[in-house]
Design brief:
The protein is rod-shaped, with a radius of gyration of 28 Å. About 70% of the residues lie in helices and about 0% in strands. The protein contains eight helices and no strands. It is mainly alpha-helical. It has one domain.
Length: about 250
Amino acid sequence: MNTPVKKSVSETGHAKNAANFQSLISFCSGFGTAYNPSKASLSTEQLQLLLQNAQNVLEAVRVAKTSFDNATNNRKSAFSSLKTLATKIVNAYSVSGSDQLGINNMKSTNKKLQGTSKKEQPAEGDEAVKKISTSQQSYDKIIEHFAAMIEILVQSPDYNPNEIDLKVTSLQAKLSDLQLRNTELVAAYTEYSNAMLNRNQVLYNALSGLVQTAKEVKQYVKSVFGTTSPQYKQVSGIEFKSYKIG
């Protein structure tokens, strides 16, 4: 989760579906009293409400995604120099007069921290959730290893460097910041994920979603005006796509 999500084809498609639905409503309104479906959800009034709902959930996704991207960048920045700092800690601890067993323990913990990989974030979908989960576990482990390094220092009476950034209090403050940035990202991703779920429900619910409703509107227009009618030709070519996403 190190870089902002790039706009995917499906993200563009969600907005296109909403825009096309607005065009569909416009044509239906233009039919006047001839457009008079018995199914309440196909009335122009209900179609307008569905369109507004779709626009609202799309905006909610955009807002949540911006917060998620900002949290991702903030965490990346907070962690960017950590491995270099950890190496400096090992070197400072090694010349602090501590016993060799402690030094070996410190080096072993640092090796774990240095070897923890971070996954790049894809766009959307089940694979994205899987990779984001893997990345989150990676960051959790980095924090765990860094905390373990600090604990070694806390229990070492010989460790007392002059460098401010290597003092235990500074390192503890750094740890708190890492934990905060990590927590903020988890919360931002939860909000983003929920916003996507809400969007998918409004646009792609198999019974009441925008795409399904558009299909039913077209079928109704065809039944009223006929397959070869100019009215049906107006709406039949308006494209709607369903996206199988997370």
